[in-house]
Predict the 3D structure of the following.
Amino acid sequence: MKLLITGGTAIAALKLLKAFENREAVLADYGTVPMLKSAAYQMISLGKKNEEIVAHNILNICLDEGITTVLPLYSFEIIALAKAKVLFSEFGIQILLPDDEALQLYFNESQTPKLNDWAVYDSGKLLYASTDNPVWQTQQNNLNGAFTWASGQPFLITI
């Protein structure tokens, strides 16, 4: 099971790797990316940024690299990939995002909350929490993705 985290050159992507220590990880970003490979992860380029075909581009990368799970961090990717979750699932690729209908509850394109306390969920199951904050431990059936807490509620982590 191979994981792709976009925004791979950002500190947030490196922090989120802690949630997936037992999985092979690929950090990916747009433009020129240092082609690194370590025991913990490898870095690849997603090519030139083109918001109009982002879902198609990421799907091709997933198929080429054998990716089974995608954690998008850029705002423009979140919108595109939430709409394409069914397409990705047809290829056996999971997108760690809430369902398209629930996305508006946890995502505000103009707001980028600070990455202090954070947690990663897979279909409501807590995979990792950065602290022992009790809020992360409660049942969160509708959460899917990487979240931080802001203004009394969870928000998707974006860069």
Notes: Strands lie at 2-6, 24-29, 41-45, 69-71, 94-95, 118-122, 125-129, 145-150, 153-156. The two ends are 25 Å apart (CA to CA).
